[in-house]
Amino acid sequence: MKAKVAINGYGTIGKRVADAVAAQDDMEIVGVVKTRPSFEARIATEKGYDVYTNSQENIASFNKSGIEVSGTIDELLDKADIVVDATPGNLGGEYKKLYQKHGVKAVWQGGEDHELAGFSFNSEANYKDAVGLDFARVVSCNTTGLIRVLYPLDKKYGIRKARVTLMRRATDPGDIKKGPINALVPDPVKLPSHHGPDVNSILPNIDITSVGVKTSTTLMHLHAVNIELKQTCVEDDIISLLGGRPRIRLVNSKDGIKSTAEAMELAKDLGRPRGDMWENILWKDSISIDKGELYLFQAIHQESDVVPENVDAIRAMLGLEKDGAKSIMKTNKALGITA
Ligand code: NAD
């Protein structure tokens, strides 16, 4: 029997996780929660997802709009084994009580604090520790992208210190409200950005400091990474280590992928749903060892890199698969990730 998954918060992340779960053979979507009868709610019903809403009052507005609504979140949670909470950050605390009341496991996203779940998740770094847990938090898009690089490097060569500059997209492409639209914004102005400490929620022993700059783009984040390793190695060692990771796609600027724009074009050419790029895009020809330190550039598709991690978190927490590497392969195969 397939595991029953509910999605609360069917926006940028929630709708993608729903489709990724529906693509797996060991889990299914039992319903998604929408607050308003928007076009996304209509498309969810067209895709065959049962749409629920978060209050009795909202049922009336769904009925008025003609979009079929199956009931309230309480009714959905009674049918689910686990809920993926992809509501906007900081609503998690309120919903935690509801999930506990219904006895469902919950996966939160990076907008929530580590303390809410008490466990932060990354598929390669700590899958086995998530097996059987009731609560977990999939770390943010940037933290996921960083850990995919830092974890294997630390395991193989040891990281003495990591210094990261994150050039962050201003907002997601579907958002017409946030900016900047013509500026570069140090964010925060004073060290550190929250990303380094967030990496430490999974890899506590890594000495990492990060700075962030908000940029006038919606496509992807760009990371400039500088790492001092404990053991000596050459560029080819790094290429073969990172090139062998299941969710890192090495690209070459000489092939015409010189920017986040072309990285997104690659995702579209690969026929990815919504033009998503689930893997880190890491420039092979950026990998350099200079004065004994490693440098590289990578781009992160903020709307989608956490999606396969959510699928793995569900599998671990429900004990559907105890071996993280097998879950990663299974998720990747179902989604068509061949990096
Ligand atoms: P979003 O705004 O695109 O989607 C949130 C959805 O939740 C919307 O559909 C909204 O209508 C709905 N919602 C609002 N209030 C609700 C409520 N009370 N109950 C149920 N649903 C409610 O947000 P998002 O970008 O998908 O972010 C969701 C989470 O994922 C956040 O924690 C965020 O930090 C994290 N995250 C976002 C990104 C990103 O780049 N967008 C990347 C990684 C992680």
- Structural category is alpha/beta
How many structural units, i.e. domains?
Answer: 2
Cofactors, ions and other ligands in the entry? nicotinamide-adenine-dinucleotide
Contiguous uncertain segments of 5+ residues: none
Number of strands: 16
What is the 3D shape? Answer: globular
Major sheet size, sense and barrel closure:
8 strands, parallel
Q: State the CATH superfamily name of the largest domain.
A: NAD(P)-binding Rossmann-like Domain
Q: How large a portion of the residues is in β-strands, by DSSP E?
A: 15-25%
> In the CATH scheme, what's the topology name of the largest domain?
Rossmann fold
Highest CATH level, the class of the largest domain:
Alpha Beta
Task: Give the % helix.
Answer: 25-40%
The spatial strand order of the largest sheet comes to 4-3-2-1-5-6-8-7
Architecture of the largest domain in CATH? 3-Layer(aba) Sandwich
Whole-Å distance between the termini?
30 Å
Write the element-wise H/E pattern from the N-terminal end onward. EHEHEHEHEHEHEHEHEEHEEHEHEEEHH
Our count of helices gives 13
The residue-averaged pLDDT reads 97
Whole-number radius of gyration?
20 Å
